[in-house]
What we know:
Blueprint: E1 5-8, H1 14-22, E2 26-29, H2 38-44, E3 49-54, H3 62-66, E4 73-76, H4 86-92, E5 95-97, H5 104-119, H6 122-131, E6 150-153, H7 157-167, E7 173-176, E8 187-188, H8 192-197, E9 201-204, H9 218-224, E10 229-232, H10 241-250, E11 255-258, E12 277-279, H11 288-306
Parallel strand pairs: 1-2, 1-3, 3-4, 4-5, 6-7, 6-9, 7-8, 9-10, 10-11, 11-12
Helix pairs in contact: 1-11, 5-7
Amino acid sequence: xxxxxxxxxxxxxxxxxxxxxxxxxxxxxxxxxxxxxxxxxxxxxxxxxxxxxxxxxxxxxxxxxxxxxxxxxxxxxxxxxxxxxxxxxxxxxxxxxxxxxxxxxxxxxxxxxxxxxxxxxxxxxxxxxxxxxxxxxxxxxxxxxxxxxxxxxxxxxxxxxxxxxxxxxxxxxxxxxxxxxxxxxxxxxxxxxxxxxxxxxxxxxxxxxxxxxxxxxxxxxxxxxxxxxxxxxxxxxxxxxxxxxxxxxxxxxxxxxxxxxxxxxxxxxxxxxxxxxxxxxxxxxxxxxxxxxxxxxxxxxxxxxxxxxxxxxxxx
Length: 316
């Protein structure tokens, strides 16, 4: 990949940046430009940029693609592709890849971790012990996870991995997806509201599309109810955030564990004081092992494209 121009939309993993540089790529660091100048930056360097490395927050929209007439491939450092204009890429013949599978286990692990943290109120209990409040009395009783009914929105790779982990806790599994899956031990519901009505914990694990944007709305939240827990390790826009905040503040929802938010990195401040809410900064795949494997997939796809070999994880 010697001297190939690569537009990097976000500050990358140091390993990925080092490996791109070692392979002779010329990196164009879009994140270093003011947001108001980013299209201009692309146009100024359009004669050299043949690839984009993006992620779940900064991909390749239509305007960026139009500004890069020599663009050949978008290699996303993520599974989600809602920040890539796929129709535009197909129209231009631009290849698109992502990084599936390698992050499945870490995301599923975090989903279970968030669930237990919310139900056992681990962050709040930690603060209780650290503050010395334990000396004044025992901590409040919490709720067990084992045996609770777990509902999953989206039974893809990650949804299945979450289901298998929850089964180890003797949790009955139900799910909603576009069609019923060949998993007879899991109960299928044809609407998100029906699913929420029949589970104690609702986990969002589907892809973000126009159909799944705000799939968790007020009706779903109310169906989950004041004893229910919502876990979102999908994408922020899956959930109608103002409705979620209102339900938690008003006590219409029992709790929430959130890795993603509608306007990251902005988190609704109303949630900060709630002991039944656990907030983490979009870290589901953020382990050394997984991020390195994701970087290797990005590198492998770029190398395959420019060596005219089959892509490792082609989307387009």
